[in-house]
Structure formats: structure tokens, C-alpha cells
Design brief:
There is one protein chain. This protein is of the alpha+beta class. It has helices spanning 37-55, 73-95, 145-152, 158-163, 199-202, 207-214, 220-233; strands at residues 3-5, 15-20, 25-32, 103-112, 117-123, 127-132, 135-138, 182-187, 193-197, 240-250, 268-273. Strands 1, 6, 7, 9, 10 and 11 form a 6-stranded antiparallel sheet that branches. It has a 5-stranded antiparallel sheet with strand order 2-3-4-5-8, with helices on one face. Helix 1 (37-55) packs antiparallel against helix 2 and helix 6 (207-214) packs antiparallel against helix 7. It is globular. The protein starts with a strand and ends in an 8-residue tail after the last strand.
Length: 281
């Protein structure tokens, strides 16, 4: 299922998410631009990325952007899908006065069992974390005004940093006809848990609290609900969305589920998501 919740202080939910189990693809988007426009932008992002993966799954399809030979096919596919979503959101915004200026953040994670890597592409301040061996690490870097200042002024005094607006993002889908997408590849291990979320979650609870809830070997759907409840307990100032993915061992020969049987990490890994916490993908 994943989880998306309106929160306690918003009247409308502008977040969206998608889980495509057949493609090992997971998406979270956080829209902006007003009551209707943000909802439209985030939904377009999720649907456009999902649609591209479905259309390019089996047959030869012409991709709308240049294939980067320096990247793997998985990386190119994720990058192209996000760029295509940006173009569609931008073009839709030009067709209606009500949609002018709409945009959305996005974070997408694509698992490739052959390379044993999770590929993460993102724009904006929706985040991806990985939990491993009792520790949590943020994989993405927020595209925010604060971070941009710190990139060029890493020694900025705390008093100056506190004066910067904290909720201003500097990159989003739909703002222009092209967009720069940050892309990373993370080598997975059996037992890794990935957390994709909008800033309605990460802005309301600490990384340590995310670790405390999602780092335990609990049902991922339950963990999503607990994270959402905790964000609301802390004020619920924004829409809240979370998708959790855990890497489990899958026997390479017959595809049987080896969870809980002491399977070695050399077994073929596979993701289990909060969309189907008891189903091996």
C-alpha cells in the first residue's frame, strides 16, 4: 500500500506515491502550486514514471532522451522516466491558467537484482534513506536554499544559517522544460531497509525516530502507519507519505522465499515493499 496522509494542518493532500512490484520501482512525489495544481503535478509525476516503465518493459520503444553510455540501462531508464515526467508536467502547466507554476519533488528507487544495486533518482527535498546494521543514512541531498548556501559556504555561522528560509526548494519537476536529476547507485545487502518519504515525514520526525520505527524487523505496512502517526503526533504540519522497501534473500534456483531461514547474503536479493509486506517480489 505505502502510506499517504493529509496531515493535521492541510485540507488537501498534494503527495502521491507508486509501487510497481513487477519492475521493482518505488516512487514518492510531493506537489506544490496550490490546492489543485500540486495534486495534479505529483500525480502526473507518479503516473508518467510508472507509464514509461510499463511501456518500455517488453518491446522496442523509442526513448525520448539520449541514452547515456556511461550509465547502466537501469540508470538510464530511471533518469529518462523522471525527465519525461518533468516535461509532461511543464507542458500541462502551460495549457491551463489554473496549473501555471505547478511543480513537484520526486524520489524514485529502482532495484536491479542482477547488479545487486538500488538506483535512486531525485529532484527536490523528498528523501531516500537506507537502514543497515542498526544505522540510518540519508542517501539523497535536499535541493534546498539552505543546502545550496552550505555547499558554497560550509562554515556559515549557525546564526546566519538560522535566518535562511528552511522550506524553500531550489529544484523541482515542472519548473522548466528540462531538469537536472541527481542519480546514485547503492549496493544492497540482504536486510537493508529503504525509506522513501516526503518532507511531511522527514520534517516532522528525526532520523533517529525513523530508525527506531523502521529499523526493527517489523511488518513494513505497520512501520509506515507508525511513522505517519508519529509525524502527526509531532504536529502533522504537511502531507505525509512514506514507502518502505526491505531487501530479502531469494533462492536463485527456484525462487523460494528464504526469509527467516538463515539464508546467506550471497543468495539472490529481492525487495519486499510496504505495498506487499508479506509477498516476495
Amino acid at each position: 500500500m505505502g502510506i499517504t496522509d493529509v496531515g493535521l494542518q492541510r485540507e488537501h493532500n498534494e503527495d502521491s506515491f507508486a509501487v510497481l512490484s513487477e519492475h521493482d520501482l518505488f516512487i514518492v512525489a510531493d506537489g506544490m502550486g496550490g490546492h489543485r495544481a500540486g495534486d495534479v503535478a505529483s500525480r502526473l509525476a507518479s503516473e508518467s514514471i510508472s507509464d514509461f516503465f510499463q511501456r518500455t518493459a517488453g518491446e522496442e520503444v523509442t526513448w525520448p532522451f539520449h541514452f547515456d553510455s556511461a550509465l547502466s540501462e537501469s540508470e538510464n531508464r530511471l533518469l529518462t522516466a523522471i525527465r519525461l515526467a518533468n516535461r509532461q508536467i511543464y507542458e500541462h502547466s502551460l495549457k491551463s491558467q489554473d496549473l501555471r507554476g505547478m511543480g513537484t519533488t520526486v524520489v524514485g528507487a529502482l532495484f536491479n537484482p542482477d547488479t545487486r544495486k538500488m538506483y535512486v533518482g531525485h529532484v527536490g527535498d523528498s528523501r531516500a534513506y537506507v537502514i543497515r546494521d542498526g544505522r540510518i543514512s540519508q542517501l539523497t541531498r535536499d535541493h534546498s536554499l539552505v543546502n545550496d548556501y552550505l555547499k558554497v559556504m560550509p562554515d556559515m555561522p549557525e546564526d546566519q544559517r538560522s535566518e535562511l528560509p528552511k522550506n524553500v526548494i531550489t529544484r523541482a519537476l515542472g519548473m522548466q522544460d528540462s531538469v537536472e536529476v541527481d542519480l546514485l547507485a547503492h549496493e544492497v545487502r540482504v536486510g537493508d531497509t529503504f525509506v522513501l518519504c516526503s518532507d511531511g515525514l522527514s520534517g516532522m520526525i528525526s532520523d533517529a525516530e525513523i530508525l527506531q520505527v523502521a529499523g526493527q524487523n517489523v511488518d513494513l505496512g505497520d512501520a509506515c502507519r507508525r511513522l505517519t502517526a508519529l509525524a502527526n503526533e509531532h504536529g502533522g504540519e504537511d502531507n505525509i507519505t512514506a514507502v518502505l522497501v526491505r531487501i530479502v534473500a531469494k533462492d536463485g534456483a527456484d525462487g523460494s522465499d528464504n526469509r527467516g531461514k538463515g539464508s546467506p547474503s550471497s543468495d539472490r536479493p529481492a525487495p519486499v515493499s510496504s505495498a506487499a509486506a508479506d509477498t516476495l517480489i
